[in-house]
């Protein structure tokens, strides 16, 4: 009887480990409220989470192009994929830029196109 009980316990534990949906990575979306060196704090509602950026972190803009970590600023809306245990960021996808930032980039494009017409 003990053998069957132990066998059943081991079998159940094995199935749980193999078929569980727990992965190492998780996602979190929100607004960047602080960038401090390699530390990034993102807030959604009342929840604030602190993450770590490392040299392997990939950062994408709204179009899916890889960008530099220098372009990570406060108030950008992002989707972060991170390691559950270490809180290290695997990937940052910028979802939305600031309105001010968007108008500045539009003004720069307009100025450069008007410069081309003047030539």
Strand order of the largest sheet: 3-2-1-5-6-4
Compute the CA-based radius of gyration: 22 Å
First-residue to last-residue Cα separation: 92 Å
Q: Beta fraction of the residues?
A: 35-45%
Instruction: Output the number of helix runs.
Output: 2
The parts where pLDDT drops under 50 for at least 5 residues are: 112-119
Structural class: alpha+beta
Can you give the mean pLDDT? 78
Strands, total number = 6
| Secondary-structure element order, N to C | HEEEEEEH
The coarse silhouette is elongated
Helix content: 25-40%
The major pleated sheet works out as: 6 strands, mixed
Describe the structure in your own words:
The protein is an alpha+beta fold. It has 2 helices and 6 strands. Strands 3-2-1-5-6-4 form a 6-stranded mixed beta sheet, with no helix packed on it. The longest helix has 20 residues. The chain is elongated, with a radius of gyration of 22 Å.
């Amino acid at each position: 009887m003990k053998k069957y009980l132990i066998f059943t316990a081991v079998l159940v534990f094995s199935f749980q480990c193999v078929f569980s949906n727990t992965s190492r990575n998780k996602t979190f979306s929100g607004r960047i409220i602080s960038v401090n060196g390699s530390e990034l704090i993102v807030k959604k509602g009342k929840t604030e989470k602190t993450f770590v950026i490392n040299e392997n972190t990939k950062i994408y803009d709204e179009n899916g192009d890889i960008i530099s970590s220098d372009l990570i600023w406060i108030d950008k809306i992002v989707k972060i994929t991170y390691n559950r245990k270490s809180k290290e960021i695997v990937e940052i996808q910028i979802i939305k830029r600031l309105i001010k930032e968007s108008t500045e980039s539009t003004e720069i494009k307009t100025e450069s196109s008007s410069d081309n017409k003047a030539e």
